[in-house]
């Protein structure tokens, strides 16, 4: 049994490429809630300052695919973040399937223009990486209305770094005729973000955040922020 387990782990990580995968001209068909993806790109499993959150999601569930433009935007934003917040490692979460389409339990993520990003965290005011080891259980983390982890009050969301990342995404998107079309973050956490220096710039730039969400959707967007990209 132990040998089988080790072989399984080897298979998973041998598939976790450090380079993007996919060829051809990408096309996002339909909408984020009813669509498909043609000739998408799979993210590298990790980069200089980021990694995909779960080898299981990456390999077996095949949920790290996006439109090629969205891939380029995201990777360039991470490069920008190496300058604006060099002490940070970011967590890339679920994107779309290789050909898009329904991806439970998500209601969107269907055409390669949606990405979930793990909220950057601090412990006692310093960046932490513990959340990088949680895998799919990262989606079960729960924070209070001030962004403090309910199971450990020493851990809280780093809203300033979150804001810097969102601004980097918007900047990279605009270079490619795209923009951050929509951000979904738990409603009662938005004020904490907008109080920060980067959050004030986000608000000034008019980057749209969901204003009202069904209770279930709202409750599950405290540990990550969902971003939809669109074309200008």
Structure commentary:
- The model has no long low-confidence stretch (mean pLDDT 91).
- The radius of gyration is 17 Å and the shape is globular.
- It has a single domain (21-231), classed as Muramoyl-pentapeptide Carboxypeptidase, domain 2.
- The protein has helices spanning 2-14, 55-60, 68-84, 159-174, 190-194, 197-205, 215-219; strands at residues 27-30, 35-38, 41-42, 50-52, 65-66, 90-92, 114-118, 121-123, 126-127, 155-157, 178-184, 224-231.
- The strands form four sheets. It has a five-stranded mixed beta sheet with strand order 4-6-7-12-11, covered by helices on one side. Strands 9-8-10 form a three-stranded antiparallel beta sheet, with no helix packed on it. The protein has a two-stranded antiparallel sheet with strand order 1-2.
- It is 31% helix and 20% strand.
- Helix 3 packs across helix 4 (159-174).
- The protein is an alpha+beta fold.
- It contains seven helices and twelve strands.
Amino-to-carboxy terminus distance: 53 Å
Largest beta-sheet details: 5 strands, mixed
Enumerate how many helices there are, as a single number: 7
The sequence of SSEs as H and E is HEEEEHEHEEEEEHEHHHE
In the CATH hierarchy, what is the class? Answer: Alpha Beta
**Would you tell me the overall average pLDDT?**
91
Based on DSSP secondary structure assignment, what is the total number of beta strands? 12
Helices and strands: which structural class?
alpha+beta
Enumerate the spans where pLDDT stays under 50 for 5 or more consecutive residues: none
CATH architecture: 2-Layer Sandwich
Helix content: 25-40%
Shape designation: globular
The structural domain count equals 1
Rounded radius of gyration (Å): 17 Å
Going across the major beta sheet, what is the strand order? 4-6-7-12-11
Topology-level CATH name = Muramoyl-pentapeptide Carboxypeptidase, domain 2
How large a portion of the residues is in β-strands, by DSSP E? 15-25%
